[in-house]
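Progress note, sequence design subtask.
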C-alpha cells in the first residue's frame, strides 16, 4: 500500500520539516497569519472595517478559552 499522503502531511501545522525552513520565514508568517502585537492586530482590524468588512470569525480551539479573552482585549481597542 502506497501511503505517500502520510509522509506528505507529516508534521502539518505542528512543526517545520527540514525542507520548509528556507521558505518559512518570520516575514511570511506575519504576512499570512494574524501573528502580531495587539496594536498591529487592531490596525489590521481597522483596515478591514474601512474596507467594508463588518464581521470577523475567530477559531481559537475549545482547549484554549483564554485566547478568546486575549482577542476580546484586541477588539476593545478597535
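Output:
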Amino acid at each position: 500500500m502506497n501511503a505517500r499522503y502520510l509522509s506528505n502531511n507529516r508534521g502539518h501545522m505542528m512543526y517545520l520539516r527540514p525542507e520548509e525552513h528556507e521558505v518559512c520565514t518570520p516575514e511570511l508568517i506575519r504576512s499570512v497569519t494574524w501573528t502580531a502585537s495587539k496594536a498591529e492586530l487592531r490596525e489590521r482590524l481597522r483596515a478591514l472595517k474601512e474596507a467594508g468588512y463588518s464581521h470577523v470569525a475567530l477559531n481559537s480551539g475549545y482547549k484554549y478559552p483564554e485566547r478568546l479573552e486575549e482577542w476580546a482585549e484586541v477588539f476593545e481597542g478597535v
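The helical segments are 4-8, 26-32, 38-50, 65-76. Work on this subtask will continue into the next period as scheduled.
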